[in-house]
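task queued by scheduler; priority normal; single chain, no ligands, no partner chains; default sampling; output format set to structure tokens
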Amino acid sequence: MNPFCCVMPLSLAGLGVAHAVSVDVVLGDNLGPLLPARLVTHLEATGAAVSVQATGKCGGSSDLCLAFGSSPASRAVIGPELLAQAGAEGFVVSDGRLAGSGSGRLIAVDGNPGQLPRVGDPSPSAGAAYGAYAVLERVGFGFVHAFQPVIPSSLAFAASFAPPTPQVTVESPKWPVRSWHYHTEHPLELTDFLQGFDASCAGVNASAAPHCAFNESWESMFPDMLRFVDWLLAARQNRLEWIPLLNWQWGDQGTSPQRLARFRNITATLHAAGLLAVVDVPVAERQQNAWYMTNATGSIAECEADIASHIDQWAAAGFDVLATESGFSEFTHPACDVMLALLNFTADYASDAYGMPAYVKAHCSTGQSCPNFTDPRTGQPIDFNFLPALGSPRLNVMPHTVQVYSRDDPAGDSYGNANLTYMFDFATWLAERSTARGDGREVVWHGESAYWVNYDIDVGLALGPLYGERRLNDLRWLAAQQAASGGGMAALRGQNVFASGSPWSYWVGNTVAARAAWDPQAAGLTQEQAFAAALDPVAAALFFGSDQGEMPAQRLKAVLGKVVTDHRQLLVLGNATGVPAPPPGPQGTTYRNGMAYLGGADTWSTVETLVQGHSTQPKRVFLAAVTNWTKGQGAPPGYLDVLAPLLRALRSMTAAHLVEVASLAPMVRPEAAELFADLVAAFNMTALRAAQVEAVYEAASPSSSNTTRHAALGRALLAIRAAGAVVAANEPRYGVSSERVAGWRGTPTSYGYGFLWTVRSLMYMWRDYGLATAVTALAEQGEVQIERLSPCYMNINDPLLIGLGSNELQELGDWARREAEKTGIDWVKALGNCLAQPDAEPQYPRDL
């Protein structure tokens, strides 16, 4: 039996249960201070008559008895030998008939402890916590969206399905590190809360705008945090990592006692749930309001003193683990010897002073090396990002890949990478070397479940399933390498997922990616079979108790399996019927993959490409640079021979996916209807985006007649209008306040809007449309619309704050943009737009 689904060809109407389901709840002594109330609250939300049994035993006459954690009721059916079999953090579930009740059902669970919080806060057994949520899922709950749990309207179905003989399930984690990096340099659902601030349209300095129309107090967001904790435990995660931010414009609020007390409150809450708190504080990285520890410009002794004081602060705030970043930014760095010395000191001080393990990210940005440090594998100067491999063995390393790409994928020149294979090779080499040396260094894989900037969730694209499947592919490959090493890669310790939000289908990928570190699925399965198995919790959340048995779940797996296959083929590999095959070689898919066009483009992806030849996303042919035919080997592809068939295939594929996904709606249980509607909305947005992209490129093509151009622009406009309706309908499904995540407002980040504002405003669609109209005007009338054709067109960001973390330069940029606007000269205004975000929220299409 699939423990997630527990479905039979039986409808609730046929159960003949007229009374409220009676549920006895036994709460063991190893659940910690938070979980008992959470479990009871969830069960009461179903309408069941819940009775907490203080005796530690089931009452005997209930329809359902749930025994959570170590108690007489659980010990009667779960012996010490089963718990020993489960191992550290593992758990055991026993599911059978309730003795003496005739037809009642008893589900008992208990588990083993894992790593305890450093500060000694009361904490439950990790295994008991994971098992408790596994039991809730077994009786019909769904924890697959971090802020939108599925609560069954009744436990009648679960109570009716008591196995005739006890069924025992033993679960153990594949890896001990299962961490969730919630990237608070992005203005996400809980960024304000995790920064210790209220959420306000005025940002951190809310007192400066007393008439601000939007404000949520820090305390009012606590229920959202608790739902997030529910999700983390259901996903078998054991760490939550985030980045504290600081901007000196905040004055005393940035380092106030209240803010530090709120950090302590958050870490204590995590400890109460059995989770470790990880603080990600850069050594010297200054981008995006990072709260860096030192400026790395003074003497080594001065820098070390700065670092020590910061670590002292975070240890006092209750954090258990320290993570850090290398360099001044992803693309710049101090002298390599200085960087390595400061990283070594960070790891050694954290360990010696507080017993805190330290981890550093090894990014996949390109073009940086250390001439005076040699890569042991090649004898050549080492890549700056790999410099930590030469440091203290107490400096654990997290190789970090970006976006959807896995080991066997071309990356379309994203971050200047033909592919990311070398990151996997670095991870396995370092794990093998550390294991052979026995030096204690850990290697933790650090892939992504959403990138955010321009690329995926902030366009509303339905890439969540593909992200989940690709992260599963990562871990299955790493697990296979580890198994083949015969113990030679023991230093590979798990995963830390970089996450940027849940809506627009990303809850699917988050769930698959997170749980893959607990169970990457059996080695004997194909990748397609493994992904289908990894979708079990998603299928259960949507279809639990279906009177059609397993059919809806199997149908969902087939549909999403086809989606991820199609997405990889066309979005990543550039393959589709009727589309010319990309040239051979590592750069063959550059310009020729669907992701390059389906994703958004903004000022800075454009400027980066113009200046350095690549950007932080796959390289595309710009609308203003479309030609009819490909001009030579390695040249950007032409419209008629490559782009038109590629974009046509993209539109056809995404439209077909929408029909397939939407066809599942009648089978979804009512309690999960809104969750599934988010998935449908994401596929609808993706289809509309594909239709709009095809239309604007047709309008920009030199081969198009004036009539064709205007017809194409009309289709693009229709797609944008339809997308607006989809967004408006989906915003209430975000699980948190839509103004918090989609409003144009001040945030603690370096971005002046919530992370889904670009979806609400359809900024990327409108920008492409505005560019296409400018190209059309140039082709038809010779009119040069300088502002629209400028790479600075529709800039919404402060580049000097985001990239350099400089308030002074940000203020200078704001002043220069306003002065440029006053000149009334088109080219001056166009350049001024690059320097800062607008003072007021743009309104499209008015501000095109």
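post-processing summary
- The chain has four domains: 12-171, 177-545, 568-786, 787-848.
- The first strand starts at residue 22 and ends at 27.
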